[in-house]
Amino acid sequence: MAAELGVIAVGVAAGILSGMLGVGGGTLFAPGLVIFLGATQLHAEATSLVAIVPTALVGAWRQQRYGNLRRSEGIELGALAAGGGIAGVAIANTVPEQVLRWTFAAFILFVAAQLVRRELRGSGGPIERGELG
Amino acid sequence: MPPVRRTFQLAVVGTAAGAFAGVFGVGGGIVIVPLLIVWLGYEEREATGTSLAAIVVISSFTAGLQALYGNVDWARGALIGIPAMAGAVIGTWLQQRVPVHWISLGFAALLVAIAISLVV
Looking at this predicted complex, what is its ipTM? Predict the structure, then answer.
């Protein structure tokens, strides 16, 4: 039961980050399922994709209300991702579990680096506002 | 900008996002958002909003593929995805009102901690 509550908490936190930063859903879903429920990396990633659908749907709906959504271009972008998606899923199902987990760890380190970089050079970021000296 | 060139750009961004989504079980926002801003001239909030719309399509498709491989646990998907829907409403609301800098940096630190816990 405690594990299920942990997963629910991860869900809420991932949703908040996803809504605020435009990333975060999947980077937390999969580790949440691995760490709290002992899922394999492959099953956690597959299940994470299912959880991303409603999360992104809600986020997109809210962003549309705030006028931040170019819907037709977003859908076109999504449709044009099909080839990459097929290749990516095939790769995930081919490589050994350990390799997938390590690669995922490397991927979220890359995400962390991107977030830091975006903050350090972003408009109105900490540097422009003089917060980092 | 000619439409053909724009479609080509969207195809490149989409293919990269799809590959990340498939390999890592993520939406692909981390590649979509910066590329929309830098390459297609989006403003930041508009990039995150449009990225979410693309992610709906990308994750539906890749989740369907993973289901065909028999890897999806639907009950666990609901257990983590439904609370995330509530979180997303809160998150987009907050985005309009508070600066995200420290949240970004805190999230980055959290990801580093998770990466370590996954490999040790």
Answer: 0.90
